[in-house]
Amino acid sequence: PDPSEKYRKNVAGKTAVFNGEEFILEETDWYLLDLFRLWWRYGISFIRLQMWVEEIMEKFMRIYKYQGHGYAFSSVEELLHSLGGSGFLNMTHRSLSESLLELGVSQRFIDEVIAPVMRVNYGQNISIPAFVGAVSLAGAQANLWAVEGGNKLVCSGLLKLAKANLIQAQVTTISPHSTQYQLNYATLTEKGSEFYDIVVVATPLQSSVGSGISFQGFEPQLPDIAGSYHHTVASIVHGYLNCSYFGFPDPKLFPFASVLTTDSPGLFFNSAASICPVNISTGFRRKQPQEAGVYKVFSPQPLDKPALKTLFRSYYSVQVTDWQAYPHYGSTQDLPPVVLHDSLYYLNGIEWAGSAMEMSSVAAKNIALLAYHRWSRQLEMVDQKDLMHKIKTEL
Ligand SMILES: *[C@@H]1O[C@H](CO)[C@@H](O)[C@H](O)[C@H]1NC(C)=O
Ligand SMILES: *[C@@H]1O[C@H](CO)[C@@H](O)[C@H](O)[C@H]1NC(C)=O
Ligand SMILES: *[C@@H]1O[C@H](CO)[C@@H](O)[C@H](O)[C@H]1NC(C)=O
Ligand SMILES: *[C@@H]1O[C@H](CO)[C@@H](O)[C@H](O)[C@H]1NC(C)=O
Q1: Which of 223, 297, 318, 379 has the greatest number of CB atoms lying within 10 Å of its CB?
Q2: Burial of 196 (0-12, 13-18, 19+ CB in 10 A)
């Protein structure tokens, strides 16, 4: 958003998959060898997977063209359908493992490659919906980039660019008032109230998450937003990795920067990875395993002392974030609505189709367009069918 923002440089690092006892998959320095090993171990599975993900991404990318032409969608279903037809919708209702098996991907490949990626990205297993899985597999293979200084600068940069009047407060109630909405809010020191023509809620509304917002005076009542969010604990540990635990008594010989895990009973963590600063200066190098480094560990439960002492020879500090990170996916979840009321919109429903920063930006732009078109009664810009064709003939 802000042209002064820069890409953060990538720091190379190898990945391996751990099953609780040993590494079952290890990345090497040599791309061709990796390819050969994958081929040897999994046969045609990884090519099938690659083609599947590429096809889905190609269709998904249509959204940028549609949005560039100003088209908007009144539901996540309409949005997905316009990108990939009933195939995309079906993918939000079927499990990833079922879809991949049908595609001819082997069970072994699913257990040893796909499951570890789902564990690190969503803390969940291969029963999550196929569309969510495809989104996170795209993230696992493409060259992801980050903003120097941290991705949070995207948000502050956008706010600045929009010249928005930001009130930092907790919204307590939203109620309809003729054609407007009244928002009551509270800061630490005072309470306030404002009227707005259009309201966008951009926080999960599942009661188990506890947004703190109460909707009052809506007749009929607003629909309940079902489901719950999945707890993940992120521990940032400054210390010495216990390479012995991974079968490398000499840390100097430990070649991996990140460890993924299979879905094995008794494993107390989902992933562990050495992390680097938000800004990478020239000449920066990743800390070696024999040095004290900063690691990010994802786990379903907080790491207790014995767990920390298993993963780390010793450590200086541990910072724990226990949060409701992403939806707890069932395989038959309905997608939440985008339009809650005339001019009251809900962003987070998109997370149930795929939870990623990029998905949320797509949802945000969609709501901006949708709110504008509905406000100015340009309904031909909403839920249009056959957009691929329309856009071609518009040019
Ligand atoms: C989606 O599912 C429906 C009903 O199960 C089926 O009729 C349709 O063929 C499926 N579409 C695709 C593209 O798989
Ligand atoms: C995946 O996890 C869910 C609970 O989140 C569980 O019901 C299901 O049996 C698990 N599936 C597999 C294949 O382990
Ligand atoms: C990182 O880079 C950003 C943008 O270039 C800059 O604003 C920030 O001060 C830098 N932070 C650190 C810790 O060097
Ligand atoms: C490190 O891992 C080894 C092997 O699993 C284990 O015996 C040891 O207790 C662990 N912790 C430390 C602090 O070395």
Answers
A1: 297
A2: middle
Distance 87 CA to ligand 1 centre (A): 6
Q: How does residue 9 score in pLDDT terms, banded at 50, 70 and 90?
A: confident
Distance 9 CA to ligand 3 centre (A): 13
Q: Whose CA is nearest to atom 2 of ligand 3?
A: 149
Which residue is closest in CA terms to ligand 1's atom 4?
A: 90
CB-CB contact of 335 with 75 (8 Å):
yes
State residue 332's pLDDT score: 62
3-state secondary structure of 100: helix
Q: DSSP letters of 334-383? A: PPPPSEEETTEEE-GGGGGT--SHHHHHHHHHHHHHHHHHHHTT-GGGBS
Question: Whose Cα sits closest to atom 2 in ligand 2?
Answer: 125
Residues 357-388 pLDDT 10s: 889 999 999 999 999 999 999 999 999 998 98
Secondary-structure breakdown of the chain: helix, strand, coil percentages, each rounded to the nearest 5: 35, 25, 40
Q: How far is the C-alpha of 269 from the C-alpha of 380, rounded, in Å?
A: 50
State which H helix or E strand residue 192 sits in: strand 191-196
The token pair that represents 310 in the structure block: 């298993």
Q: How far is the CA of 330 from the centre of ligand 2 (A)?
A: 9
Could you report the per-residue pLDDT of 82-141, keeping only the tens digit for each?
999 999 999 999 999 999 999 999 999 999 999 999 999 999 999 999 999 998 888 766
- Given this model, what pLDDT does residue 327 score? 95
What tens digit of pLDDT does each residue of 264-304 get?
998 999 999 999 998 888 889 999 999 999 999 999 999 99
What number does the ligand 1 atom closest to the CA of 87 have?
13
